[in-house]
Each structure stands twice: as structure tokens, then as C-alpha cells.
Specification:
InterPro entries: Acyl_CoA_acyltransferase (IPR016181), GNAT_dom (IPR000182), N-acetyltransferase (IPR051531). The chain has 5 helices and 5 strands. The protein is of the alpha+beta class. The chain starts with a strand and ends with a helix.
């Protein structure tokens, strides 16, 4: 499942995104308002769980990678998660280096 905006591409995470995913969950700036920084092992385990969940047919949660359309550089993650039958939650994690270059305004 993929979609895009004028400046960004969004695609479900895949195995090749492991390093990027782990780096975000290990970055204190990114995790400041989310929760504790994860260890390498914890972030790796979470990544494997996300990949499995992304492959399920029944919607519970999806996590997309966010990529700059021109450069295809990874900018962050977006998650859509079912909270209840009539409620979903969205979460956004952006690479601090990309935020300095204005990526947050492209979302």
C-alpha cells in the first residue's frame, strides 16, 4: 500500500528499512515526547513486529516510511493504529536532520 503527496512518497515498511527504523527509535530527540529510547535489541524486535503486522490483511495498524519524492531519502515514519471500533490514532516520527531542512512543513 503506497500513496504520495506533492513532495513526499509513503510506502509500507519493508525489511530494507530496518536500519532507518532502529535509528529513529534510538534517537533521544525523536523519542523525547514518545517514550524511552529503545535499545538496539528492543528496536529490532519492534521492527520485526511492525513488518509482520503490516503484512496482515485485517487492519489493526500500518506503518509507512516517509520519503522525499525528489531524492527518495528517508524522512521518517507514519503510523495509523486502530484504538477502538470507531477510533484510530496517527503517529508521526521525523528524522531530526530532515526536520531542520523543512520536511515537517511538507507533511
Amino acid at each position: 500500500m503506497e500513496f504520495s503527496s506533492h513532495r513526499l512518497d509513503f510506502r509500507l515498511l519493508k525489511a530494507a528499512d530496518r536500519e532507518i527504523f532502529i535509528s529513529l527509535y534510538r534517537d533521544p530527540k525523536v523519542m523525547r515526547k514518545i517514550g524511552p529510547v529503545l535499545s538496539e535489541t528492543e528496536a529490532g524486535d519492534l521492527f520485526e513486529s511492525v513488518i509482520r503486522t503490516n503484512q496482515k490483511k485485517h487492519f489493526k495498524q500500518y506503518v509507512w516510511g516517509v520519503f522525499d519524492k525528489q531524492t527518495q531519502l528517508h524522512c521518517g515514519l507514519i503510523m495509523l493504529k486502530t484504538v477502538s471500533e470507531r477510533k484510530c490514532e496517527i503517529g508521526i516520527m521525523l528524522d531530526p536532520k530532515k526536520m531542520e531542512k523543512g520536511i515537517r512543513w511538507k507533511l
